[in-house]
Write a structure and sequence with these properties.
The chain is an alpha+beta fold. The chain contains 10 helices and 17 strands.
Amino acid sequence: MATNIDLDKLEKVVPQAEDFLPLLGTDYVELYVGNAKQSAYYYQTAWGFQPIAYSGLETGRKDQVSYVLEQDKIRLVLTSPLEPDGPVNAHINAHGDGVKVVALWVDDATKSFEETVKRGAKPYMEPTVEEDEYGSVVRSGIHTYGETVHIFVERKNYKGAFLPGYKAWDKPYTTASNGLKYIDHMVGNVGWNEMNTWCEFYAKVMGFAQLVSFDDKDISTEYTALMSKVMSNGNGRIKFPINEPAEGRKKSQIEEYIDFYNGAGVQHLALATDNIIETVTNLRNRGVEFLTVPATYYETVLDRVGEIDEDLEPLKELGILIDRDDEGYLLQIFTKPVLDRPTMFFEIIQRKGAQSFGKGNFKALFEAIEREQAERGTL
């Protein structure tokens, strides 16, 4: 059962009508990885991220090294240990490479900490002022599912490359952007019967609302199933779908994730683009591998989703999925796991009005994942 919540406080909270935790957006996502330098090269070369900032021995940091990469509004931090012990090593030993920090951009990090902790969040980082010649940043943090944490970042008084303790990373090697714009949503996988607990956490501790829910009738195949609820903050800039396993004949992708990640964690980041055909073509040409669906998917897809602006043939060639809701349609595709363990992957998404999450594609997507699981021997 989840342990990073004060359940006694949580049960006493009455949801507030006002937005007590205004979030301006995602500030950064930090991954703990075994080799940050090589990981940074991968995200630059394959994904088109640009070098922004660096922290390590050359900046006086003796215990860990971090590389900061950016593409439009998406900022990744890749961190590796420089010493044999410590929390970064422990995290990598337990989980392999994976997301440790989902940092949220706020106007007041102290108030964000106080408001969430008094509603039941377990403190991770007390409000701390960090300063250098470019100004000051205030950061604070709370625990969420598994070992994932949210750090609140207040940077209105800072003009540096990233954070105090980092220097600008002036690297001659850069690659062209792949047209990725921002993080559309981030999906968390939690254990059996923990989804509602963590949805309640986001509702009562962080003021999120539930946008939509999917049960095992919506997300299932002949073999596997899962449950999912989508939580969103007030302005819609932060969306966190939360998945849990459901009973099926064989091991679902959520169970596989939890087994290999050794607990709950971030399953995937959905990255938005304005031209998914161009973005996916570039990513494939740079070596990124995507899940594929049978060609028969495209024989009836337009009967289901109606007219779209794009020609169907390039979507079919690339394996891009299509779905529609009352607001419009969306195009989406999912990578294979980008790590050695079958854990974290990415989604590329282009919204043409639709605000949903591709419910009509779930069966085709899950069958594609099951084919990969069968090859790994984990289905």
